[in-house]
Amino acid sequence: MTIWSDLTGVGYAVRYVDVHGLRTRALQAGDGEAVVFLHGTSGHLEAFVRNIPAHSEKYACHALDMMGHGYTDGPDEPYRIPGYVRHVLGYLDACGIERAHFVGESLGGWVAARLAADHPDRVRRLTLVAPGGSVANPAVMDRIKTSTRAAVQTDDIDLTRKRLHLLMHDPAANVSEELVQVRHAIYHRPEFVKAIGNLLCLQELDNRTEDLLTPEQMGRITAPTLIVWGAQNPFGEIPEAHRMNEAIPGSRLEIFGECGHWPQHEHAERFNELNLAFLGEA
User: Fold this and answer.
1) Residue 200 per-residue DSSP state
2) Which pLDDT belongs to residue 129?
3) With a cut of 70, which residues of the chain have pLDDT below it?
4) In the chain, what is the greatest distance between 2 CA atoms, to the nearest angstrom?
5) Predicted pLDDT at 243
6) Residue 2, CB-side half-sphere exposure with 13 Å CA sphere
């Protein structure tokens, strides 16, 4: 079993879409209302291969490599939240999507929440998976920055493996060698190496503080919202999830036990059942 064999039987395509001049990689599958999947810092669309088959039975799925991530181009400037939001909106426009459901993990949740606050007309329902962006914790920021730089700037594939292990409560069951190879190849693209400072800019205190989701912004989110959190999330403690739950009107919080920073991957069957029920609510 490999990460791509999870898509066996699914009619999908990996396409490159021109978004404001940035060549943007997207995995597209299914028909119906659009669901846009957004990954975390230094991540890529393969974070959602365990979710696309179930979701594509009812929805048109769009899993993106966000700006400057994976195989998507990035501008020669720091990658800040407003820029990520513009890029996602540009993708919607390029694909003729007026409104979409959003599933955002970590950084992707931060971007999706900001998009929902500032552009409520473009969002149907919002699923925030271990979302970032509500706090600035220097210890966590340093862990992300240090581990990512080490994996990108050194050819030792074990450093990439360790970076992925950080995300999981049970790495042995959830970090395949193929996933390691996929991320290692991305991390060592010359364009990715060159832009690593831009990609990690939100792990710098000044940048992060300016772009944090404020209680006022979260209070403006009108889309029905589901927050999914791992009880052993290494990049955010449970009180952070409760504060977001309290700040986003009418939101619902689900905490997965024995789970790290990738609930959608570590507990894919449970996540898929939960999220599909949520997206299908009247």
Assistant:
1) T
2) 98
3) 1-3
4) 50
5) 98
6) 9
Shortest CA distance to 108 belongs to which of 135, 74, 85, 78?
A: 85
**Residue 217: count of CB within 10 angstroms of its CB:** 18
Q: What is the pLDDT, as a whole number, of residue 1?
A: 45
What token pair was written down for 11? 């009619």
Q: What is the pLDDT of residue 5?
A: 81
Half-sphere exposure of residue 238, counting CA atoms within 13 Å on the CB side?
9
What's the CA gap between 100 and 60, in Å, rounded? 9
* The residue to which tokens 């074990």 are assigned: 158
110 contact partners, CB below 8 Å, separation of at least 6: 81, 104, 131, 132, 133, 213
Q: How far apart are CA 101 and CA 126, in angstroms?
A: 6
Domain 4-279 is classified in which CATH homologous superfamily?
A: Alpha/Beta hydrolase fold, catalytic domain (3.40.50.1820)
Rg (CA), the chain: 17
Find residue 212's DSSP bridge partners.
none
Residues 6+ apart with CB under 8 A from 137: 236
Domain coordinates in residue numbering, the chain: 4-279
**CB 225 within 8 Å of CB 125:** yes
Residue 2 has a pLDDT of: 61
Residue 92: CB atoms within 10 A of its CB come to 19
| pTM for the whole structure | 0.98
Residue 22 region by backbone torsions, left for phi larger than 0, else alpha for psi between -120 and 50, else beta: beta
- Predicted confidence at residue 233, as pLDDT, reads 98
